[in-house]
């Protein structure tokens, strides 16, 4: 009976660890998506502010 309990406990522990690994792998994939979205947003903001700093029309800003 002790051997059966040990086997049952080991089997359940292996299943639990397997589920934990699957859960963590899925979370890592979701996190990668969030990081990619964040990086894309930062790049868009940098481009936007960079374009605001650049002169709009160099011919219109010339003084005589």
SSE topology sketch:
Elements: H1 2-53
Folded structure, characterized:
There is one protein chain. This protein has 64 residues and is mainly alpha-helical. It is 81% helix and 0% strand. The chain is built from one helix and no strands. The longest helix is centred in the middle third of the chain and has 52 residues, at 2-53. The model has no long low-confidence stretch (mean pLDDT 87).
Question: What tags apply to this protein structure?
Answer:
64 residues; mainly alpha; rod-shaped
Percentage of β-strand residues = under 5%
- Structural class, by secondary structure, is mainly alpha
Computed CA radius of gyration, to the nearest angstrom: 28 Å
How many runs of DSSP E, i.e. beta strands?
Answer: 0
The low-confidence parts are none
Helix content: over 70%
H/E series: H
Mean pLDDT level:
87
Major β-sheet, in short? none
Distance between the termini: 100 Å
Number of helices: 1
General form? rod-shaped
